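Hey, I'm writing a tutorial for new members on how sequence and structure tokens pair up, and I'd like a real worked example in the thread rather than a made-up one. If someone can provide the structure for the chain below, I'll link this post from the tutorial.
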Amino acid sequence: MNNPKDQLDQIKEIRSMMERSSRFISLSGLAGVFAGFFALAGATAFYLFIHHKLQHEYMYFADQTGIDLSRDFMLFCIADAGAVVTLSLLFAIFFTTRNAKSKGQTIWDASARRLIINLMIPLVSGGLYCLILLNYGRFGLIAPTTLLFYGLALVNASKYTLDEIRWLGFSEIILGLIGCFFIGYGVTLWALGFGIMHIVYGLIMYVRYETKPVEKKFW
């Protein structure tokens, strides 16, 4: 008969197997770090564009209601956001795939599908709501709204991945709510949320899960 220590080790192994089967634990912290840098670059490009090209500060646009935005401004915003999202996704796929291979895991399994589905529901809803805000000329609310819905998406999806994602989601929600009250600082808070917070949480995840072979904890 196994001694109590062997039984305890077996229970821990069973629990670890159940966690691996129900959670996507191959998410790389480096993906978050690079996403943060791309977000900071995108926010910087936005500030430079409106300041030098349009000769206005962000607060001018944020405080306006029913503002008629120019075609050039809209095209730049789409290109800027598209570049940030595309580069972030490409690097996320690269680093996460590499991390999964190093652990002998598959990147596309049932847990990954559940993660994507639960992540996309709030993100798509938030994107549509931002289009509604833009239609009514409430440009100043778009940046904090993206933070708010992104945070909700992370919290919603966190039950299928690492727990740091949940706390990152809470941070994004708080920043989004603050931005809704202080409209003129929406992009600054956006850079803090999508930029700095991604870098901080990405480094935490990388150090905790990828630099040394430690057992991952879930709580």
